[in-house]
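Budget justification aside, the reviewers requested a transparent look at the raw inputs and outputs of the sequence design task funded under Objective 1. We therefore reproduce one unedited record. The lines immediately below are the structure tokens for a 231-residue chain.
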């Protein structure tokens, strides 16, 4: 199964065929166009670790409490199929009913239980909605939920720290993980068994064995100075 940007989707490591540094060009210098980073709080919150962020509430729609929702499920409408969703603190629960779609990838229009006017809808803007982890289908061998990968510590085979996984992308040539480093720009690493031989969710880390040159700092551009001719 291929992986998309959705928290509820799954990433599967590719086979042993590695992607070398001379393969498909992969950006390593910041934000990657339309590929959205995963939403989700830090992994040191045990309560959140047992849940998956399924979407985030956007602006109100109309005056009767409907809202725009950015869904992170593979089929956006499926966000309503997981039962009542709760907020980040687990204090409020909402049952969703999808009533339409909105402009934008994964955008829906939905009503929320207990929300009947625009003011209440406005107060929920930016709220993340979570489903219990056990409500999601089990993963196959070598298949991982986006929410499980984001936040993992990335180390080299000799345990040298590389950084932390901040996103997973699919640019068309297979899944890649984006790793933020303490120094330098983020780096994209092919999510294959050869390049990521160990994924230890319980230990909170992955082992990265990158092709030569993949983690090197980008070359600085050299600007030649041009001397103006003497008057």
């Amino acid at each position: 199964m291929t992986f998309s940007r959705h928290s509820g989707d799954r990433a599967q490591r590719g086979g042993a065929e590695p992607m070398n540094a001379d393969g498909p060009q992969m950006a390593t210098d910041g934000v990657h166009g339309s590929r959205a980073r995963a939403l989700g709080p830090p992994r040191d919150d045990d309560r959140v670790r047992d849940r998956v962020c399924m979407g985030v509430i956007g602006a109100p729609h109309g005056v009767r409490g409907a809202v725009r929702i950015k869904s992170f499920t593979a089929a956006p409408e499926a966000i309503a199929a997981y039962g009542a969703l709760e907020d980040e603190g687990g204090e409020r629960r909402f049952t969703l009913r999808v009533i339409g779609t909105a402009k934008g990838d994964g955008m829906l229009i939905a009503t929320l239980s207990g929300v009947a006017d625009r003011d209440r809808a406005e107060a929920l803007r930016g709220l993340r909605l979570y489903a219990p982890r056990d409500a999601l289908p089990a993963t196959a061998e070598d298949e991982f939920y986006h929410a499980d990968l984001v936040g993992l510590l990335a180390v080299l085979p000799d345990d040298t720290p590389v950084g932390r996984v901040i996103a997973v992308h699919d640019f068309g040539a297979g899944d890649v993980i984006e790793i933020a480093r303490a120094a330098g720009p983020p780096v994209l690493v092919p999510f294959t068994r050869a390049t990521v031989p160990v994924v230890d969710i319980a230990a909170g880390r992955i082992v990265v064995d990158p092709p030569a040159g993949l983690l090197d700092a980008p070359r600085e551009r050299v600007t030649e100075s041009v001397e103006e001719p003497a008057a």
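Confidence is low (pLDDT under 50) at residues 1-7, 15-47, 220-226. The radius of gyration is 21 Å. Computational costs for records of this kind are itemized in the attached budget.
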